[in-house]
Each structure stands twice: as structure tokens, then as C-alpha cells.
Design a protein that fits this description.
By secondary structure, this protein is of the alpha/beta class. It has 16 helices and 19 strands. The strands form five sheets. It has a nine-stranded mixed β-sheet with strand order 9-10-8-7-6-5-4-1-13, sandwiched between helices. The chain has a three-stranded antiparallel β-sheet with strand order 14-15-16, with helices on one face.
């Protein structure tokens, strides 16, 4: 990058609050005033009719329960050791699914199914089997389905893995975060490496085709030495995918993060060094950089999808399937019907009460405009393929955007070929910022000032 600004200079400029772009517009920028339950149902029907017969639909089940609080976590969760909550919550999920089945009017073709959390393996194998079996009873499973779940290495048993495998699950993602004892103690996630190894070995023996690890950089008391030690341990297990996320320090959203202060966190430059340390080790061991925190071995479906131009991104993150309808079931779950977004009530009790009353649990949403749909396409192209056609940029006719892209080219973040603006290899560190250049809602909010609800991009 000779002649380009230094990494430190770029970090100072671009380490600003920026969305992760699992949707566009992003949730804080939804226009709820123009949204209604009737418009949501119409959007669901339209997207279902357009996609069900060929592509199928996606399902995301939010299982929010955890036995203990991991203080770094900013997700919507319910902390309890009372496993008596499982059956009641499953009944609510299935009632909500029945409501959507009525909206569809015929059996859906399920292409993608993901269990997220919280901790899905908080639920017993028996209850997970009941939930998934009942869910799929009134559906047709796509021949090229992708069923996956998130597991905690401490409580994901061989029985969990075998039960879900028998139901069609072939990918599991284990939350590792960090293996350093001091870091684990600070974030209240004590997780021995032996537990991770045991869960990984069980997964492979049972027949899972893709085992993924989630790690985080920027956590309190992390150093390049601790990150290197963590990676050298986890890479001995040769995960098929690695997600290496930037820690989002948002104590105004997640009060548990107030247990440590800014002095305990790495600086912006140090945080970038943590990422580069992990990325270098991954690249040395044959992992390909997918973009926006994700890495995969060349045999994995995620890399194959990117190489083939079919990689997609939605509320579940990067995915190898591109459906037009994603239904989120459960408290706080978000749905994407192509023409509209919707989110369920966040508190478990309020969510269950709404479902019991015979209505959807949706409490806010957004109806897509033609401009929204077009700009979503641009942002997805950058996030998934690292490029956007020059003709598309020219058609936008936005002088501010053109100037921003020109600056990014001068800084070595972007380059151009005969057809497109392309994110460079060093520029991958700033891919959220490149996406943000096309986010007109973000630009307006920045001009208005005020505290951002987004985590920093780097």
C-alpha cells in the first residue's frame, strides 16, 4: 500500500459507528409510521408466492434462554436455570408457526432452518426434537436444505448433536469467543478448550459436514499474545469456518458490559492488531477471507458460494442460500419478506401473550420503497462479493457518494477494474464503511448528530 495512508490513519478515520448490514435499511432506520400488520401480511403473502415453489423459504427460531450471563453479549436473552420454561416457549413458537401457515395457505418449502439464541442447546434434545419435528410436519423440506444451529461447547452433548443430525441438521456453530482464562473470567464465560474439542469431535463423528467457530476480538484484557494462543489452539481442530467478530461495546444497550471499563479494552489501533493477528494465522492455514469477519476453508459451502457468486447475507448473517422470505419465530426475532421487515416483541412474556391472543407478535417493521430495494442490492453486492458495477454507481447520481468512493480509491480501500469498484485485500478491514457509503439513512443521521446505536466498524 505504498503511497496510501497508514493503517493507523485509516482506523482513526473509519473506526466510527457503522451497521453490520444484515438488512437495508438497518433496524434503527426503519420507518414504523408507514408499517402495519396488514401490510406485513400482504408482504409475506407476496414473497411466499414468488419464491416458495422454487427457492423455498428460510426459518429462524430465536431460543433466548441461557443459564448464565456472558457479560460481553448484547443479544436479546433471558437468563434462567429453570428448564421448566422450555415447553411453554415451544408451544408459543409452534402457535406462531401455525399463524404463518394460515397466511401461506399451503405447505411451505423449507430451504433453510437455523436455531439461534441465547443458547439453543439450553433446550433438552427431546424438546428440540419435538419442536423441529412438529415445525416440519406441515412443510416440505427442500432437497438442497441447509439446517444449522448454534451450540455452547459446555452444554452441547453428543445426544444434542445426534438428535439434530437425525432431523437434517448438518452444520453447527460453536461460540468460542476467547480461550484466555483472564478474558473468560472477565466476560463470565468459563469454557475449557477440552469442552470445545469434545464437542467438535462428537460433531464430526456423528456426520456434521461443517463445524464453525465464533471468536471475538476487542474483548477486555485481550492482547496479541492471547489472541495468538487462542487461534493456535482452535486451529488444531481445523474448523470449516471461522467467524471473527469485532466486539461491540454498547453498555447503554447491554448493562452487563459495565462490569469493565474503557481502560480494560484495547485501543483502536491495538484492536486492529488483534484482528490482523488472527487473520494472518487463518490465511497461513489455508482459510479464505469471505468478507465482514468471516473465513472458510476452500471446501466449505460458504467459500464455494462466494466464489460462484451466490453468497447471500440476511438477519442470520452470511448464508449459502438466497430465499426471498425469512420468517423469524420467537421473542425479538426479525423477519424479512423482501418487500417488508418485521420484528417480534422482545420480552418473552409479552411475545407469548400476543401469540396466545391469536395475533402475530410483530411490534414494529418497515415497508420497503423501490429505492430501499435498489440500495439493498448495492450493499449486498459489496458485503457478499466485494464489488459494485461502475454503471450502478453512475446511475445513482450522488456527488457525495462519488467523492467518498474516490477517497477510498486514493486510500487503497477500493480499486477499479473495467467494470466495477472492487474492495482490495487491505480494504476488507473497512468493508462495513464501504457499505455505509451507500447508506443514505446513515448519512442523514450523521448530519443530525446525536449518539449512534451502532457499534464501531473496526
Amino acid at each position: 500500500m505504498s503511497g496510501f495512508p497508514s493503517q493507523a490513519e485509516l482506523i482513526k478515520k473509519y473506526d466510527v459507528p457503522t451497521p453490520r448490514y444484515t438488512s437495508y435499511p438497518t433496524v434503527p432506520h426503519w420507518n414504523n409510521r408507514l408499517f402495519s400488520s396488514a401490510k406485513w401480511i400482504d408482504a409475506v403473502k407476496r414473497a411466499f408466492c414468488e419464491s416458495n415453489d422454487a427457492k423455498g423459504i428460510s426459518l429462524y427460531l430465536h431460543l433466548p434462554f441461557c443459564e448464565s450471563l456472558c457479560t460481553y453479549c448484547a443479544c436479546n436473552k433471558r437468563i434462567t436455570k429453570n428448564h421448566g420454561v422450555e415447553l411453554k416457549y415451544i408451544r408459543s413458537l409452534l402457535k406462531e408457526w401455525t399463524l404463518y401457515l394460515r397466511i401461506f395457505g399451503r405447505k411451505p418449502l423449507v430451504r433453510e432452518l437455523h436455531l439461534g439464541g441465547g443458547t439453543p442447546t439450553f433446550f433438552s434434545p427431546e424438546n428440540l426434537k419435538w419442536l423441529v419435528s412438529y415445525l416440519l410436519e406441515e412443510a416440505v423440506v427442500h432437497d438442497e436444505n441447509e439446517f444449522s444451529f448454534e451450540g455452547h461447547p459446555n452444554n452441547t452433548t453428543a445426544e444434542h448433536l445426534a438428535t439434530l443430525h437425525s432431523l437434517g441438521f448438518r452444520r453447527v456453530s460453536f461460540g468460542v469467543q476467547d480461550l484466555d482464562p483472564k478474558v473468560q473470567q472477565t466476560i463470565n464465560r468459563i469454557q475449557p478448550f477440552e469442552k470445545l474439542r469434545e464437542a467438535t469431535e462428537h460433531s464430526r463423528r456423528i456426520g456434521y459436514k461443517s463445524v464453525s467457530f465464533d471468536l471475538i476480538y476487542g474483548l477486555p484484557f485481550q492482547t496479541t499474545a492471547t489472541i495468538e494462543h487462542t487461534f493456535r489452539q482452535v486451529l488444531t481442530l481445523r474448523p470449516d469456518r471461522v467467524s471473527f467478530y469485532s466486539y461491540a461495546h454498547v453498555p447503554w444497550v447491554s448493562p452487563g458490559q459495565r462490569g469493565y471499563g474503557d481502560k480494560d479494552l484495547p485501543s483502536d489501533v491495538q484492536k486492529r492488531e488483534l484482528y490482523e493477528t488472527g487473520r494472518t494465522l487463518l490465511k497461513e492455514r489455508g482459510y479464505e477471507d469471505i468478507g465482514m469477519d468471516h473465513f472458510a476453508l476452500p471446501h466449505d459451502a460458504l467459500y464455494i458460494a462466494q466464489a460462484g457468486g451466490s453468497l447471500h447475507r440476511n438477519f442470520m448473517g452470511y448464508t449459502t442460500t438466497h430465499t426471498e422470505l425469512l420468517i423469524g419465530l420467537g421473542a425479538s426475532a426479525i423477519s424479512d419478506a423482501k418487500y417488508a421487515y418485521a420484528q417480534n416483541l422482545k420480552k418473552v412474556e409479552e411475545y407469548s401473550a400476543a401469540i396466545d391472543s391469536g395475533t402475530t407478535a410483530v411490534f414494529k417493521g418497515h415497508v420497503q420503497t423501490e429505492e430501499d430495494i435498489q440500495f439493498r442490492k448495492y450493499i449486498l453486492g459489496i458485503a457478499c462479493q466485494g464489488r459494485i458495477p461502475i454503471r450502478d454507481v453512475a446511475a445513482i447520481n450522488d456527488s457525495v457518494l462519488m467523492e467518498t468512493l474516490k477517497e477510498m480509491c486514493a486510500e487503497g480501500i477500493l480499486a477499479t477494474d473495467s467494470e466495477a469498484y472492487v474492495v482490495t485485500d487491505p480494504g476488507r478491514a473497512f468493508i462495513r464503511n464501504v457499505c455505509g457509503a451507500f447508506d443514505r439513512n446513515l448519512r442523514i443521521k450523521e448530519q443530525q448528530g446525536g449518539q449512534s446505536v451502532f457499534s464501531k466498524s473496526i
